[in-house]
């Protein structure tokens, strides 16, 4: 392959369900490799399984890729729509002597395999000269001796003895192409230079290479990446919790954090754990992919997520929160809620590791008066504490409403009542947020503003009698 040719990668999901986290990582690796080299990232929907392929699954996959922030070039290709092209190539191979007509029935093949359980099927029609006028499949005339060698960019050199491979069917007797043929034809016609996919496809690659060679087509670079396992080291499944990309989105991990985390899942660049998209595109290379299965680690994901939430500017974070709420059928934010929330974001994002954690801490900015005080917080509100809140209300009535001045006023009120600031903070939390676990009371007051804060304090001091 010409090293100067434009890099072209592809992601080729089957639309039979949601986008699995492993598929999302495969897409990301292909996207990073192409985008980091000025290449093209293409999308192909492998919808030849007509019984299981659905438009809903295709839509979910595209939506998942868009959420993850992976843009693709050109229109997504439907593999099923290209079945005539696949059949045409099979007929070309037949005409060139690289394939042959096989008239063996399903029953005859089954009987042969029962009699030769340890051997690949050998069709009696491979070298036949007299052919019947009955339906036939087209089979590849694969080499019977020697080896098919895969020069894999991740797995290294993989050798497969040709006598262990059968003459695979290219075109079924009903005229429909097989998956093996379709993949090769599509990758060739799309100009794919690098096939980056899960190592569960490695056994298919030797067979697909034989089609490339039979057609005289250049082989792409193959890179088979290890699968993702759960924290227990076993193949990822539902028992491990979230496995679909949509589930991670619903758990409130921002897309930027997922890109960072998934990039590091099986690939490394030195000891770098936290990085942005530009760094990932610059650094990503096939040589950095390990051969061992990667393990999903939710604690590490939370750490990465918290890092990215902390880096997001207010506008991006607000947009991420609104997207999260819309995707999880949450109540959309009102203009008033946004007005209170934005000033609180700098303090809130320091500790939040997920978007729902941030929203939980932001509850004080989202609730309306009168604030509903929960049972635990209510214990901090008695006649004495409400009296202190009344004093604080008077003290800050004409304050400049800076964090420092509010804190100074609160310290003075606490001192006048012979208590520490903590004794005032409890009732203040209850009045402002209705809870005991909140951000700093002074961060809440500055975010809420003078009018709303005083109104909430007033609601409680009126109960002091």
From TrEMBL:
Protein location: Cytoplasm
Catalysis: reaction(s): tRNA(Glu) + L-glutamate + ATP = L-glutamyl-tRNA(Glu) + AMP + diphosphate
Taxonomic path: Bacteria, Pseudomonadati, Pseudomonadota, Alphaproteobacteria, Rhodobacterales
Domain Aminoacyl-tRNA synthetase class I anticodon-binding: 334-459
Enzyme Commission code(s) on record: 6.1.1.17
Predominant subcellular localization, coarse grouping: cytoplasm
Subunit relationships: Monomer.
Enzyme class: ligase
Record motif 'HIGH' region, residues: 13-23
Motif ('KMSKS' region): 235-239
Glutamyl/glutaminyl-tRNA synthetase class Ib catalytic domain boundaries: 6-302
Binding site for ATP: 238
Name under which the protein is recorded: Glutamate--tRNA ligase
Keywords: Aminoacyl-tRNA synthetase, ATP-binding, Cytoplasm, Ligase, Nucleotide-binding, Protein biosynthesis
GO molecular function: glutamate-tRNA ligase activity
Domain of life: Bacteria
Similarity annotation: Belongs to the class-I aminoacyl-tRNA synthetase family. Glutamate--tRNA ligase type 1 subfamily.
Alphabetical list of PROSITE patterns matching this protein: AA_TRNA_LIGASE_I
Biological role stated in the UniProt entry: Catalyzes the attachment of glutamate to tRNA(Glu) in a two-step reaction: glutamate is first activated by ATP to form Glu-AMP and then transferred to the acceptor end of tRNA(Glu).
């Amino acid at each position: 392959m010409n090293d100067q040719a434009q890099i072209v990668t592809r992601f080729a999901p089957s639309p039979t369900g949601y986008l699995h986290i492993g598929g999302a990582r495969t897409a990301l690796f292909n996207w990073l490799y192409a985008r980091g080299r000025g290449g093209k990232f293409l999308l192909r929907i492998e919808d030849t399984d007509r019984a299981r392929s659905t438009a809903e699954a295709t839509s979910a996959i595209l939506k998942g890729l868009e959420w993850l922030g992976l843009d693709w070039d050109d229109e997504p290709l439907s593999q099923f729509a290209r079945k005539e092209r696949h059949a045409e190539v099979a007929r070309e191979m037949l005409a060139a002597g690289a394939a042959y007509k096989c008239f063996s029935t399903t029953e005859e093949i089954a009987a042969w395999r029962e009699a030769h359980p340890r051997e690949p099927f050998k069709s009696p029609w491979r070298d036949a000269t007299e052919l019947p006028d009955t339906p036939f499949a087209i089979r590849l005339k694969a080499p019977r001796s020697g080896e098919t060698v895969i020069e894999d960019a991740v797995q290294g050199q993989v050798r497969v003895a040709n006598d262990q491979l059968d003459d695979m069917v290219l075109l079924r007797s009903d005229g429909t192409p097989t998956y093996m043929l379709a993949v090769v034809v599509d990758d060739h016609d799309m100009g794919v230079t690098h096939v980056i996919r899960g190592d569960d496809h490695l056994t298919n690659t030797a067979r697909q290479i034989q089609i490339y060679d039979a057609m005289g087509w250049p082989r792409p670079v193959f890179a088979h990446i290890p699968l993702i396992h759960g924290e227990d080291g076993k193949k990822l499944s539902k028992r491990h919790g979230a496995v679909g990309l949509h589930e991670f989105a619903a758990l409130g991990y921002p897309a930027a954090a997922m890109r960072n985390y998934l990039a590091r899942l099986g690939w490394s660049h030195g000891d770098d754990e936290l990085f942005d998209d530009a760094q990932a595109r610059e650094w990503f290379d096939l040589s950095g992919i390990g051969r061992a299965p990667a393990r999903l680690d939710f604690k590490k994901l939370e750490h990465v997520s918290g890092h990215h939430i902390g880096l997001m500017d207010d506008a991006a974070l607000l947009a991420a929160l609104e997207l999260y709420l819309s995707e999880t059928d949450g109540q959309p934010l009102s203009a008033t809620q946004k007005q209170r929330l934005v000033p609180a974001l700098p303090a809130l994002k320091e500790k939040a590791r997920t978007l729902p954690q941030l929203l939980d801490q932001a509850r004080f900015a989202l609730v309306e008066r009168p604030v509903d005080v929960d049972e635990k917080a209510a214990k901090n509100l008695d006649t004495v504490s409400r009296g202190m809140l009344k004093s604080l209300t008077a003290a800050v009535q004409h304050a400049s409403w800076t964090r420092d001045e509010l804190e100074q006023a609160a310290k003075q009120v606490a001192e006048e009542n012979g208590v520490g600031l903590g004794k005032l903070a409890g009732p203040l939390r209850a009045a402002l947020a209705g809870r005991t676990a909140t951000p700093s009371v002074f961060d809440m007051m500055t975010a809420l503003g003078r009018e709303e804060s005083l109104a909430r304090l007033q609601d409680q001091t009126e109960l002091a009698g």
